[in-house]
Each structure stands twice: as structure tokens, then as C-alpha cells.
Amino acid sequence: MDNVLEAKNINKHFLKPKDFHVLKDISFAIKQGEFASIMGKSGSGKSTLLYILSTMDTDYTGELFLNNELVTGRLSTELSRIRNEHIGFVFQFHYLLSEFSVLENVMLPAKKLARKSVQEIEHDAILKLKMLGIENLAKQKASRISGGEKQRVAIARALINNPSILMGDEPTGNLDSYNSDNVFNIFKQLKEEEGLSLLVVTHDEDFAKRTDYIIQMEDGRIMS
Ligand SMILES: Nc1ncnc2c1ncn2[C@@H]1O[C@H](COP(=O)(O)OP(=O)(O)OP(=O)(O)O)[C@@H](O)[C@H]1O
């Protein structure tokens, strides 16, 4: 099966306050429909790696491929298009615009991409909210819903442009066990029913154990 994401010999140094080799020869691939997690002690380089894989950080050596296309070395305008089209991102904090409605929040990345009419985008956004079981919240202000609901809205927003991969940086880090479980089940459903690939950095061992495989990081290297 095709690789959705492939990292080849990624190395990164932070030069200040002194030279620090933070990522050491990172190579791995994620195929379509795979759900992987990244674990490792604090400071092992997980977030730094995710920043590179999501094309937000371009200061590294090595090669990054998305859907078998080399993205390393592309112009920032191109990277921003690639990111909007191919990558959905869910963070520990939801970063919803609190004064906007749930529906408006979900529609935003599609409006930014400007490939569809506002009516089509609204239709898509409602479908995503339905998929996540929160269509009843569409007209609510984002500030008025619970933490677990906010994270589901953030997932709907990450899915609006039908990305090939969903990345998460501690997406359950701020949730209680009931809501964490809920997020895990949504991710699993996206893998099984939509063939989505997922890559999630987590400190939650129970969450990681239930993914297809764990990328274990230690001191900037993949150990297993
Ligand atoms: N901008 C920076 N300049 C210098 N060093 C940095 C910078 N950002 C991160 N680091 C260092 O790089 C290392 C890896 O950081 P990173 O945030 O990737 O770790 P992590 O595994 O995600 O940790 P955590 O689990 O705590 O989020 C740490 O030692 C950190 O102090």
C-alpha cells in the first residue's frame, strides 16, 4: 500500500543557546489507514518531529514525502497549500475562535482553501459534525460548549478539507478518561471507515497501546 507520509533521515539541530542535535536520523513511513502513536520522555523530540512532519518547520536536513511527493525544499506558499489540503491537525488545546459558532469554526480551513462555495463548505461541515455526533451544537458559540465537545469540534475542523493524514499533539492531554476514550474511538472509526492515516504524539500509554504501533523516541532517536 502507498505511503501517506515518509520521513527519510531527518536530522535537526537547535543552534542556540548551543548546538544541540535534537533529531537524529529519523526514518519511518505511515501507510494509508495506519494509526500510529509517538511516545517518549519529555524532551525526547516528539513535538519537534511533529512540527517537521506537519511541514510547519522547514529547518532540518533529510527528506519528507507526503503521498509520495517530496515536500522538503518547497516554497512556503506551496507548503501552506499542501498543509491545508493534506494534513489535519489536532492540538492539546482546541484553539477554537470562541466568539464564532461551532459551524463557523469547522468551516474556516475550507474557506481558507477557497476551493468550494460557502454553501458546499457549510454542507461538508454539517456532515463532519454529524459524523462526530455533535450536529446539534452547530449554532452554539464555541465558548459555550464543554471541553470534550470542543475537542470534537477541533477534530471536525481538522477533517473539513478531507486530509490524507490527521496529526495530533497530545490531543487527549487536556481531557478526562471518558472524553479521551471518546477521542480514541473517533480516531479508530476514521481509520476503519474512512481509511484515514493518523499519527498522534501522546503520553497516555493506554491510548498508545491501542494504536497499530508505537514509535518510541529516546534522546532524538527512534528506538523501536
Ligand atoms: N527552540 C528551541 N531552541 C532550543 N532547544 C529547543 C527548542 N525547542 C525545543 N528545544 C529542546 O529540544 C528538546 C526536544 O523538545 P520537544 O519539545 O521536541 O520534546 P518533547 O519530546 O515533545 O517533550 P514534551 O513531551 O515535554 O512535549 C528539548 O530538550 C527542548 O528543550
UniProtKB/TrEMBL annotation:
CDD domains for this protein: ABC_MJ0796_LolCDE_FtsE
One Pfam family here: ABC_tran
ABC transporter domain: residues covered: 5-224
InterPro entries hit by this protein: AAA+_ATPase, ABC_transporter-like_ATP-bd, ABC_transporter-like_CS, MacB-like_ATP-bd, P-loop_NTPase
A Gene Ontology molecular function term of the record: ATP hydrolysis activity
GO cellular component, one term: membrane protein complex
Keywords: ATP-binding, Lipoprotein, Nucleotide-binding, Translocase, Transport
Keyword Translocase: yes
Keyword Translocase set for record: yes
Gene3D superfamilies found in the cross-reference section: P-loop containing nucleotide triphosphate hydrolases
PROSITE patterns (alphabetical): ABC_TRANSPORTER_1, ABC_TRANSPORTER_2
Family: Belongs to the ABC transporter superfamily. Macrolide exporter (TC 3.A.1.122) family.
Name of protein: Lipoprotein-releasing system ATP-binding protein
